[in-house]
Here is the input.
Amino acid sequence: MLFEGFSLHLTAAPDNIQGHPFHAANNVSGVDIRSIDDYQVLPLEPRVRAIQEVYIRKVVDTVHDLPNTLYEVANESSGGGFIDPKFAEQMKVGATAWGDSTEWQYWVIGLVKRYEEEKGYPKHPVGMTMQFPVPDPARVNAPLFDGPADWISPGSGVGPNDEQKPGGDWLADPPANDGHKVVISDTDHYAPFQGDALWAWKSFLRGHNPILYDLGIMGGEKPADPAKSGPGAPPCQASEAARYHQLAPRIV
Here is the structure.
């Protein structure tokens, strides 16, 4: 994952933008980003963009010989939408709206691909994941399906031409993959703390690659499960079927 998105705009200080090296208080180079917009929404300040370019090339130079590498632009960067004030209060963040990172993410994808070609490196898949927040949750996946990413990780809704209500479909009734994009179906983006054996098999048999958002193994999840008693306890049994069956198709 080349860049972080969620933490920059949806976590409380100092873990948000205030803790970033590009924030003025954290460097002596005069670089001063004050929100995720200054870092992931075009046009960028020239120095910020130049440093990003150098960094991306350095990462590609470092891992280009590893055949099992996937690039992800950023996790849940802003999509130009608003968050509910109550959610903002819960997350302890001030702003409720940010710019759209789509074109910046397309730029990053293009830079990685051009640089690999320029250097004669083997090609590695470059991915784009769900943005949050977005103006229309039913269209959250359109920038993913319509963009230049080789693989995507969708959010609520079904696809760019299917205006389903937000949430649930990728969990209960994932669409068949038409081969246009490699899909990594991550429950973090549409059904956090959910997922069972049926979800894993439906996702796999319909052409996707399931990933379970599994905080239970770290002691961070608090489901209605008597087997879970806090950090250090045995893994949460509520997600055990999903854990096992997301691996089973690969073993078979």
Observations:
- Residues 46-63 form the longest helix (18 residues).
- Strands lie at 3-4, 71-72, 74-75, 126-129, 151-153, 182-186, 209-211.
- Residues 3-135 form one domain.
- The longest strand covers residues 182-186.
